[in-house]
Every structure is written in structure tokens, then in C-alpha cells.
């Protein structure tokens, strides 16, 4: 209270000094502008700026790579910074020769190219994070969230390198740009410390993560920018007493996705794959510019489930794509029946301005597209009901999302992502709170949801 002195023995709250960053800027005026932008963002983030190596927590060397003499000057500057300080982030034009820099100075913390302000700031944050200051910070360390406290989305990249005929995402968001894995892991650690029990990993193409970074290693731990390595690291954040669910969304079915299945078998990530197959007819997949080996996909699904029997697969499909015949659509229904996907959605095709598919012939009439979508969803609902009925009598883990105060609670199983999949509706669930991870006995099911009671009731 104002005017009331602290009690005897109370230590006054102390604000920790911010980390100090030093900078060496070489090259042309454009490089100087890049240096100014880097320093501006670091100062805005709360870092202090130092004038010498000795007092700096991190040193940034903004290099020039135009002439051989300039490159040698840059290498000398990196060498001096490594010798005097040892914690060095390299940026600028010579960053294009990252292999040469790392070969000569394997201990550098990070190497980025020119005009890479965000990447440099991320590298500094990873090397010298600013300690949270609960007395003065206006924003919680985990950031402001629009989701419940116990669930958090974790974006690992932006953009997409595919050229699907129906999609304009690359035009809107550009090509793949992956975040540093150590920065992602640091964000995840903050979210978990703030109470997150479920990390929902998202991007435009999650399984392509790190390709644009040549799957390089980053940070003190040398974490590789690859979805398998990142998933394993995220899966190790929880403890037996407070496990953390890691759920992967938008996983394109590359061959290396097979490497994720053992992580599910180990319990490091949820046995859940969100794969946008879009169709099954080879002819339509080719027109969509999607992989057309639907038979091979079925083989892989069987192999995945042999290793992880409780694997849940969700997907989305398009009905009525230009050129789709009734035979193509029936092929899709037959494939769905054989694949036995757990959760599916379907959209009636609609032309999108700027999409290549607009030039394709044979667009089915709107009423045909919508009828096929409805028929697909009816087929999918029957399939879902059949698969969910197999869980009746089982005891499964449930993450509680809501409680009603009268003994009812709503949660989700490992097979259910928030907002898009099914729910587990619980009775006699007194004393539970959102974010609790419990065991529940399943008593009933319908086409989309499970019904049960906390185990032991």
C-alpha cells in the first residue's frame, strides 16, 4: 500500500540490468543502415548497447563480401571478436559464405545474410535472453494469447514452396521462411512455463520446416532445423508429473514424415497427423499439382498404424475440382473407406482469384460440387462413428478444456485438435479445472464425440 514501508527483512525488488550488445559494422552505407536497424530493434527489445568487447554479452559483426580484400577484412573482424569476446553473431553480405565462416570459426553463434534484422535479433535473444521483469513488464513473458491458457499455437515457419493449382498462399505469404529452431524452442519453453499443456505446431507446410535453412544447426545445443529434431526437442519439454502434448498440423506427406512415427511410439509427440491429402484420384491429384501416388500413401498409413495403433489421421479434401468426374469422386470415396481416416473435412471447390486452376476445363456445376461435398461428409460421418465406437470401454487420456460448475466437463483426446475435431463430454467431473490432464473411461460415442466419466468415478 502507498506509504507503508516494507516489513523488516523484506528485500527490495531488484531490476536486473539488460544484456549488453556490441557491434562492428563494415562495408557500404547500405550495410550501415542494416546495422542501424539491428541496433534499433535490439534497443526496442530492451538490450543495452556497448562500446567494447569486454562488457558485451554478444558481439554482432556486420560483414562486407563485395571484394576479396573486404572479405578478408570481415574475417579478421570476426576473428578479433571471437578472440576478445567469444560470443559472436555474424551477419551481412559475407553471410552468403556461411560454410567458409563456420569452417574458420566453428564457435560463432549464428551466421545470417544481409538485411536480416529479424534473424539477427533472434540470434541475440537466443544467446543472451532478457530476464523477465514482472514488476515492470507490460506483457507476460509468454506473450498475449487469444487461446485458453493451457493451449498455444506455435508457428514454426511462414510461406510455402508448393504450386498447388487451387492455392494462392505462395502469392500471399511468399516462399518458405523457417524460424530458427532455438528461437522456436525458447518460445515453447516460455509458453510451457506460463501454463501451456498443449503445443499446436503450425505452418503452411510443417514437414518442409528447415529446408530453406539447409537443415543447419543453431544455438549452443546445435539443434538442427528439421521437423524431426524440432519435434523431439518439443516433446522433451514436459515431465511425467506435468506432460505437454505436442500436436503437428499441416504435415505434407514427404518421405521423411515416416521418421515422426517413432517419436509418437515413444510418447514424445501425440499420435496425430494432420495431412491435407485433398483428393485420391491420380488424375485429379495431377491436375491439382499434388503427389499422385495414392496407393503408396495407403501402404504408408498401414505401416504407421502398425507401429502406432492409436494413430489418428485428419485430412481435408476438395470435391468438384475442375475435371472431376463421378468416377473420380467414387474413387475418392473408395480410397477414404480403405484409408479409414479418423477426422476429415471437405470443401466444395470454389475458384480463387489468381489460382492456376481457374484455367482448367470441366468445372462441375455448383449444385454438383455441393452435392458431392455433402455425400462425402455423410460417408465420412459414418466412418467416424465406426472408428469412435471402437473406443467405447477404453480408458484414455483427456485434456480438460471447460467445466460447467455442475459436474460436467468438456475435453479432448489425443485424437482431437481444438475447434476442428471432436470432443470428450464428461459427467461426474467435479473438481476438475481447464488444463487438467486426466484419465477417463469412455461409455458411449456418436459420429463425432465421445462420452465418459473420469476414471475411478
How is the largest sheet built, in terms of strand order? 2-1-3-4-5
Helix content: 25-40%
**Biggest sheet: strands, sense, closure?**
5 strands, parallel
Q: What is the strand content?
A: 15-25%
CATH class of the largest domain: Alpha Beta
CATH topology of the largest domain: Transcription Regulator spoIIAA
| Rg | 26 Å
Short synopsis of the structure:
This protein is an alpha/beta fold.
Give a structural overview:
This protein has 457 residues and is of the alpha/beta class. It folds into 4 domains: 20-127, Methylthiotransferase, N-terminal domain (Rossmann fold, 3-Layer(aba) Sandwich); 140-274, Transcription Regulator spoIIAA, CATH 3.30.750.210; 306-390, Transcription Regulator spoIIAA; 395-454, OB fold (Dihydrolipoamide Acetyltransferase, E2P), CATH 2.40.50. Helices cover 32% and strands 20% of the residues. The chain has 12 helices and 20 strands. It has helices at 29-45, 68-84, 98-104, 117-127, 169-173, 181-193, 227-235, 260-265, 282-288, 294-307, 326-339, 366-389; strands at 20-25, 48-49, 58-63, 88-92, 110-111, 151-155, 157-158, 177-178, 198-202, 217-218, 223-224, 245-248, 272-274, 312-319, 343-348, 395-403, 409-412, 424-426, 437-445, 450-454. It has a 5-stranded parallel β-sheet, with helices on both faces. Strands 16-17-18-20-19 form a 5-stranded mixed barrel. Strand 4, helix 3 and strand 5 form a beta-alpha-beta unit. The model is unreliable at 1-13 (pLDDT under 50).
Amino acid at each position: 500500500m502507498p506509504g507503508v514501508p516494507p516489513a523488516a527483512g523484506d528485500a527490495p525488488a531488484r531490476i536486473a540490468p539488460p544484456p549488453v550488445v556490441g557491434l562492428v559494422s563494415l562495408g557500404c552505407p547500405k550495410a550501415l543502415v542494416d546495422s542501424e536497424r539491428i541496433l534499433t530493434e535490439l534497443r526496442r527489445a530492451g538490450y543495452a548497447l556497448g562500446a567494447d568487447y569486454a562488457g558485451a554479452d554478444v558481439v554482432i559483426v556486420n560483414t562486407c563480401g563485395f571484394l576479396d580484400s573486404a572479405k578478408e577484412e570481415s574475417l579478421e573482424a570476426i576473428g578479433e571478436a571471437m578472440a576478445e569476446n567469444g560470443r559472436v553473431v555474424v551477419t551481412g553480405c559475407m553471410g552468403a559464405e556461411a560454410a567458409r565462416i563456420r569452417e574458420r570459426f566453428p564457435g560463432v553463434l549464428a551466421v545470417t545474410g544481409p538485411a536480416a534484422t529479424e534473424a539477427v535479433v533472434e540470434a541475440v535473444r537466443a544467446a543472451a535472453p532478457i530476464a523477465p521483469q514482472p514488476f515492470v513488464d507490460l506483457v507476460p513473458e509468454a506473450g498475449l494469447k487469444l487461446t485458453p491458457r493451457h493451449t498455444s499455437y506455435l508457428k514454426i515457419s511462414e510461406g510455402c514452396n508448393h504450386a498447388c493449382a487451387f492455392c494462392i498462399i505462395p502469392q500471399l505469404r511468399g516462399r518458405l521462411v523457417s524460424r530458427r529452431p532455438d528461437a522456436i524452442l525458447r518460445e515453447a519453453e516460455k509458453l510451457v512455463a506460463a501454463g501451456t499443456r498443449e503445443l499446436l505446431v503450425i505452418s503452411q507446410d510443417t514437414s518442409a520446416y528447415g529446408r530453406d535453412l539447409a537443415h543447419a544447426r543453431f544455438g549452443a545445443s546445435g539443434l538442427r532445423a528439421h521437423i524431426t529434431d524440432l519435434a523431439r526437442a518439443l516433446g522433451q519439454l514436459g515431465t511425467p508429473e506435468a506432460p505437454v502434448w505436442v500436436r503437428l498440423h499441416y504435415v505434407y506427406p514427404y518421405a521423411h514424415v515416416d521418421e515422426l512415427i517413432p517419436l509418437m511410439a515413444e510418447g514424445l509427440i501425440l499420435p496425430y497427423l494432420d495431412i491435407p491429402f485433398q483428393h485420391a484420384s491420380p488424375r485429379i491429384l495431377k491436375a491439382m499439382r499434388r503427389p499422385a501416388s495414392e496407393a503408396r500413401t495407403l501402404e504408408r498409413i498401414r505401416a504407421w498404424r502398425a507401429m502406432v495403433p492409436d494413430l489418428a489421421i485428419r485430412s481435408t479434401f476438395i470435391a468438384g475440382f475442375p475435371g472431376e468426374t463421378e468416377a473420380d469422386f467414387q474413387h475418392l470415396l473408395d480410397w477414404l473407406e480403405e484409408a479409414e481416416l479418423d477426422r476429415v473435412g471437405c470443401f466444395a471447390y470454389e475458384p480463387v482469384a489468381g489460382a492456376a486452376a481457374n484455367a482448367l476445363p470441366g468445372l462441375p456445376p455448383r449444385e454438383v460440387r455441393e452435392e458431392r461435398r455433402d455425400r462425402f461428409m455423410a460417408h465420412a460421418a459414418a466412418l467416424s462413428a465406426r472408428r469412435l465406437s471402437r473406443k467405447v470401454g477404453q480408458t484414455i487420456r483427456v485434456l480438460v478444456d471447460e467445466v460447467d460448475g455442475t459436474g460436467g466437463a468438456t475435453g479432448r483426446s489425443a485424437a482431437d485438435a481444438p475447434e476442428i475435431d471432436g470432443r470428450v463430454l464428461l459427467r461426474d467431473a467435479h473438481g476438475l479445472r481447464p488444463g487438467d490432464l486426466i484419465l477417463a473411461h469412455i461409455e458411449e460415442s456418436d459420429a463425432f464425440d465421445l462420452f465418459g466419466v473420469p476414471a475411478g468415478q
